[in-house]
Amino acid sequence: MTVPFLLCVLMVAASGLHFGGRAAALRHARRLPAVPVLAHVAVSVGAVWLGALLDPSPARLLWLVAAAASVAGFVSGAQRARPVPEPDPTPAPTA
Known about the structure:
By secondary structure, this protein is mainly alpha-helical. About 70% of the residues lie in helices and about 0% in strands. The protein has 3 helices and no strands. Helix 2 runs antiparallel to helix 3.
């Protein structure tokens, strides 16, 4: 595995963690998480394509590692996100 290919794998894993957390937070807020998902797909497609071009192995299948890191990072980011708890309502002070 070459250094540029390793950087592609680390980039998609970090992207997955970031955008997976954002998607989970939006999903928890009952909003459509399309923007983080599409952003992660854009980053991942570029990195997997670059990984396929940089693949030094004879079988040319190391791009699967980049794709698996992309999916694993997104799932891990979505699982790791913790929603912010709602504050307890406190009564208004009486004067």
